Amino acid sequence: MSSSIKTMSRRSHRLENSGYYDENMEPIISYKETLHRIFKRRRNRRQPKRREAIINKSDNNRGFTTYNLILSLLYCGLVYMILNHNFVDHGLTESPVSPTITIEDPTAIYTNIEKRLRHLQDEVLRFKEEMNSLLPVADVMPNFALESLGSRVVFSRSSEAYQTQEAHLTFLGIPLRKPPVSPRVVIQGHSPLLPGRCWAFAGGQGHLFITLSDPVTISHVTLGHISKDISPTGAITSAPKEFSVYGMKNVNDEETHLGTFFYDQDGDPVQTFKIPNHKNGFNFVKLQVNNNWGHPDYTCLYNFRVHGKLANRGERSPQGCGEY
Asked: Which InterPro entries does this chain map to (predicted)?
């Protein structure tokens, strides 16, 4: 078969009819130009897809933003309904949610805070007064017969301690008696008072001689004993019943009678008694027990206190160690 026939067989009749070939039956448009047009055509086809993707992404973001806005509005509405509901439940007529924001004056805020602080201070003071009213009177007054402040017991001028006849221990068959409790326990300020932690002297009459921590103008004295409630026997027959108090400026001076008092076995465990004012300050005090509530063998002293004011702040006894 000739080459012209082969060439004609490769040509398209459709292209020939559309003017694709010239007179010599050669293609009018070159291959490169055709490829260039095809490439541009393909590139132009892809661009709308990119724009479409960008538009779709923008639409998605817009949809996400709209979704968040709707959720925010729903949350605000829910909060408003809750606040309104609680407000109505408390019997209030106006809603706490205000459509406008008001800014308070800083001076007014400071005044309001200061007013509240004064109110709280008044409440604290009132609470302290109520607490003090529940305490024994002796606990809110200074005690000048306290050993830790320098007060001392004058053993040579006090009654002898009661010695029990019962043996506490035995050693090689020899009974050993329990040593008596020192009278110092009376001025050591133990609290609370416990059964057995006391000084006992024989019989219903006895006395305790004390050196005060400082020269004192005595206004009150306090005598303490355990109550019937915590007594193992349910009774306190060894408690003092009637007692007297004497004051002396010097150890060898004549005793000044400050008063005679009655300790109530059915009253409070710690009982305070008022003494008429004296101009002279006393350095020594004598507690004289006249009788007890019926115990035949001994009388017990648990606690004794002396209250008042310093007679002379510049004059201090050598035993004193308290700070005023």
From this structure: Galactose-bd-like_sf, SUN1-5, SUN_dom
